User: What shape does this take?
Amino acid sequence: MSNIIEMKNIHKFYKNGDESLEALKGVSFALEQGEILAIMGSSGSGKSTLLHIVGAMDVADEGEIYLNGTKEEKYGVEPDATRIRYENIGFVFQDFNLIQDFTVEENVSLPLILTGEKTKEIRRRTKDILEMVGIGEKGRNPVTNLSGGQRQRVAIARALINNPKILLADEPTGNLDEQTAAGIIELLKRTAHEMGKCVIVVTHSKFLASEADEIIQIKDGKIEWQNI
Assistant: This one.
């Protein structure tokens, strides 16, 4: 099976006055369809920078990025970055990033509405994805009425509504209690193993990392160890 995403020798530099800070120092990994990768490391290790580059929200200064087997020369550069994100990537965040005045259905369907999808198709896909994440009965509820775990399920549904190949999750269980987090982890595993997505998770949770297929530990911008 071919790789969905491959990062080769990725470097990232930031200016700090007259000095240059190297945030990533030659990071490489590859993921096939249906795999979960956990990226671990302390604050400032470079893991969030790596996630931003994978998500085409930042640009690597050196290295090569392959998407679906094709080298992308302008992976994080507009307008290519917007196209890559829309066609390939869904995002999930620790604090959910939901629109508080919207219902569950409105939050989940927003990406389809913004792209001009037909109303009938929006309703069908929204209903299907809400059923998949286990909150099919909550569609008309304001998101403010939901628990933290239910809100994260809404966020995952929204991230998957465009059927991306890659799901990026930044500390997806960070605001949840242990039991609720376990349910979200099971949902992420289903997303990878049953839906065939590549799931990349930045996490401090050893339990979440233990459930991943592969783990990368980053320290000072370099891969300290990995089980790939």
